[in-house]
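Why run this: before we spend reagent on co-expression, it is cheaper to look at a predicted model of the complex and decide which construct boundaries make sense. The entries below are exactly what would go into the expression plan.
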Amino acid sequence: EPEVTQTPSHQVTQMGQEVILRCVPISNHLYFYWYRQILGQKVEFLVSFYNNEISEKSEIFDDQFSVERPDGSNFTLKIRSTKLEDSAMYFCASLGAPIPDTDTQYFGPGTRLTVL
Amino acid sequence: KQEVTQIPAALSVPEGENLVLNCSFTDSAIYNLQWFRQDPGKGLTSLLLIQSSQREQTSGRLNASLDKSSGRSTLYIAASQPGDSATYLCAVYPGTYKYIFGTGTRLKVLA
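The model came back. Tokens follow.
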């Protein structure tokens, strides 16, 4: 069964460093998402991406964050200058249906980001 | 603004019990609702997806129901096992490109 994959599974970085979290969505899916979950808190939406541009972003997704689909398979989340409060589990998701309302988002296993 | 609440926040039951987890949402205008399982420090495993036109979905010992008009969903777990111990998350899709998650119910099934 096709699945969303994410690398790395755990990333440790120093405050102020840039990190790139990578996701490989399900092949031929069209919509891509990033969510995050701070330890003990809700899963929160960060950004959605379709047709090579951001469809929607939350207030969390400030100028420190960017997303990119550098090739036909990868979808990345970049944090330019990490802060302690960026420590969280980051989930990638993808959706295939041409109309988002008729299908479900498939979630990856997550990348745990630890900022020291 | 859509809010999703899950009650109880934590639940501890002896093995073999049938149990019900509750999810409520404030805006009934949703396209679907999904239940996930999350083990400690791990990712999200999709359990059941209910479209807005459906009333319930079943998978094995799991049954999820949806009452859109009252803003409620329940996840019923039959004959609970220690392996069911995890956090169960409810998420609604209001059709605005994102799922909105509840805070989860932390379930512990005692052997």
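The mean pLDDT of chain A is 92. Chain A touches chain B at residues 31, 33, 35, 41-45, 48, 55-56, 58, 89, 91, 100-102, 104-110, 112 (CB under 8 Å). Bring this page to Monday's planning discussion.
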